[in-house]
Each structure stands twice: as C-alpha cells, then as structure tokens.
Specification:
Blueprint (H helix, E strand, L loop, with lengths): L4 E8 L3 H21 L4 E7 L4 E8 L2 H10 L1 H12 L4 E5 L12 E8 L3 E8 L6 E6 L4 H11 L1 E7 L5 H4 L2 H7 L5 E4 H5 L8 E3 L4 E4 L2 E7 L8 E5 L2 E5 L2 E2 L2 E2 L7 H11 L7 E4 L4 H11 L4 H15 L7 E2 H7 L8 H9 L6 H13 L3
Parallel strand pairs: 7-8, 8-9, 9-10, 14-17
Antiparallel strand pairs: 1-3, 1-4, 2-3, 5-6, 6-7, 11-12, 12-13, 13-14, 15-16, 17-18
Helix pairs in contact: 1-10, 4-6, 8-13, 9-10, 12-13
The protein binds zinc ion and fe (iii) ion.
C-alpha cells in the first residue's frame, strides 16, 4: 500500500467504563461512516493502561484525508460530545502503525423499532448508489423504508429468523415497494405458511449468496421450531434464539433442543459479531448476576451496558467471546452456574442445568 496516507486520533477519558462505551460506539458507527467517506481502512484500538483509544485511518492520498477532515471529522467530535459529554478529549497523534482491516467489506446497520426490536440492514461499504442490501427481520416496514432512503439502498433479499409477527410484520409493506425480492425463511415455516410472502425455503447447512458473500444457514430450533441463524462473514443474526447475556424463551421446541442450538452457536469463531432480535441486554444482565454474582466479567459488562443504554445506544453487537464469558445460558458447565441450579434442587447434565436456568429466567422479574 505505497503512498497511503495514515493518521491517528486519540480519545482520552479517565473513566474506563466511559471509554469502553465510546469504543463500542466508534466500532458500531464511526468506522462504517469513515469507510463510506472514503477511508481505505480504519480501526479502533484500546490502549490498555493509558485510558485512551486510538482511531487509526488510512486514506489513498492526502487530498482524500483532507476532504474527510473537512466534511466528516467535525461530526465525529460533535456526536461523541453530545453522547458522552465533555469529559472526553480528541487529539491527533503521530506515528500511526500499519494495520490490516480484517473484517469483510460489509456494513451492518442497526434499525430499532417497536419497544425493543432490532432489524438489520447489511450492505457493501462502497459502490455505486443505490447500494444493494439484505434486510434481516423486518417486523415493521416504516423504519426500514426510511433507512433505505436515507442511506440510498435497495433491497436485494430479506432474511427472516423466525415467523413471529414482531419479526415479519413489515413484509407485506416492503414487498409493495420491492415485489420480486427473495424472502428467506426455514423450510418448516414455508411448509406451514406462517411467514407471509416467504418464497425461499432454506435448511440447515444451506449457503445463500448475498451481496457477493456466502451466508450460512443454521437451524436453531427452540424458541420456535423453524428458527434460523444466518451467519455472514464475521457476524451472525440470531433472532430470538441467542440474546446478549440471555436466550429466547423456549416456546415450540424442547429445552434439550434449545440447548443444543445454543451449543452449536457457541462453536462459531469467538470473534463473531452477534446481532440479536431484541434489546434485552440490561435485564438479562440483572438475571445473569443473580445466577453468577462472583463473575467479574459480568460486573464489568453491566457497567458498560448501563453506560450505553444511558446514552441511548444499542448494546449490539457483542462477540461470541463476550457471551461465553458472561451469558449464563452458554455457561452451564461453569461451577457457579451449576451451583445456582443445585441450589434450586437440580443436579444433572448441562442440558438439565440449562433447563433449570431457563425456568428461573421465565419466573424472573
Ligand atoms: Zn420471537
Ligand atoms: Fe421477538
């Protein structure tokens, strides 16, 4: 990459939790913005022990960087200040090191709707507008149509994780605008006709080509029999099967089946970014702390999440690594989770421990 123009800005804050919240926000929003604004590469690096984050950029040449500095960089400072207050300081710093962006060239946008639902738009970072996109779980059409207009996107395909109305209720209105798009859902849901306008039936192990990338289909029965997780390059859409720090209620499947589904998700690469169906993270964490009061990773995560929520930020995505450390439903082999189940009279297999934790969660307020 000869001739590449590199530079770094540094963000300092005394409170490490505030810094972690900013890090989450930068990764979820700013990196996509700066890549769309013409950066070749961008990454967020936490400098442990220095109370600082570095955002490192690479531009093709100095003019591209200057254009970014004039047109886009002021927004970063404004938005970060309005979200996180004046305690943070942005500084330019020298000596950016070389780095490689390892993620795919796709961006995932979070679309909140209803009280706590999330739909997602996946689209290429660069290209001629309008860009094609994949819509995941359009429970409501209006916020999606607004986002398509705002970001100059057109729908290439729709992925449905399961048939519940809060995930598929926007399909009919979307299809009025995009009548011939493929609507994917499980073969089971197609057979039962319970995802309106579904026209593609998929099965475990299938690969869907979308936006030029392969998306793997995993059947994850439990919340519903037809539940699907879509695994793209570096990220996954788990619907109501896996939540951050929690999992969905077992409505149609069996407890054993749900546990097997979660254990399959747990075999994805630990760096996989998880995009889930609902913003339940904060209340899930309260439950998790009841189950594992001595889990230090959990205590840290609770602080981070309350920071994000206090600033109106989504807690998605997290990584599988983070879930393995803090999600009680993925930790049924840990001694503290087993002790919790034992205190409620259940000593048995991991799946039995899971079932007891799930029952405890159902009754938890
Ligand atoms: Zn559901
Ligand atoms: Fe739901």
């Amino acid at each position: 990459m000869r001739g590449v123009y590199r530079y770094t800005v540094r963000c300092e804050a005394k409170d490490p939790i505030l810094l972690a919240a900013i890090e989450h926000w930068l990764k979820a929003n700013h990196i996509g913005d700066v890549l769309e604004a013409g950066a070749l590469e961008a990454e967020v690096v936490r400098l442990e022990g220095e109370n600082a984050i570095e955002v490192r950029y690479a531009f093709a040449h100095r003019e591209a960087f200057e254009r970014y500095e004039q047109e886009h960089a002021p927004r970063l400072r404004l938005e970060s200040r309005s979200l996180f207050g004046d305690e943070i300081a942005w500084k330019r710093s020298q000596g950016a090191t070389l780095f490689q962006r390892d993620a795919s060239s796709l961006r995932v946008r979070v679309i909140p709707y209803f009280r706590d639902n999330y739909a997602y738009l996946v689209h290429p970072i660069t290209g001629n507008k309008p860009l094609p996109c994949i819509v995941v779980d359009p429970g409501d059409a209006l916020p999606i149509l607004q986002a398509l207009e705002r970001y100059h996107l057109v729908i290439e395909a729709i992925f449905c994780t399961h048939h519940h109305a809060d995930h598929v209720g926007g399909l009919s209105a979307l299809l009025e605008h995009f009548p011939s798009v493929p609507v994917y859902g499980s073969e089971y849901d197609m057979r039962h006709g319970r995802i309106p306008f579904q026209n593609r039936a998929i099965r475990d192990g299938d690969t869907i080509q979308g936006l030029g990338y392969p998306f793997q289909v995993m059947e994850v029965p439990g919340h519903t029999i037809g539940a699907i997780t879509y695994v793209g390059p570096g990220f996954a859409f788990t619907g109501d099967t896996l939540f951050l720090a929690g999992c969905g209620r077992v409505f149609e499947g069996t407890m054993d089946g749900m546990y097997a589904s979660l254990m399959r998700l747990a075999t994805l690469p630990q760096s996989t970014l998880l995009y889930v169906g609902h913003e339940y993270t904060q209340s899930n964490l309260r439950f998790a702390q009841w189950v594992e009061p001595n889990n230090q990773d959990l205590a840290k995560r609770i602080k981070l999440v309350s920071h994000l929520r206090a600033h109106g930020q989504p807690t998605v995505p997290s990584t599988l690594k983070e879930e393995l450390a803090t999600n009680p439903f993925l930790r049924c082999s840990s001694s503290e989770v087993m002790a919790f189940a034992a205190s409620r009279g259940v000593i048995g297999s991991e799946a039995e421990v899971f079932a007891e934790i799930r029952r405890a969660k159902d009754a938890f307020t």
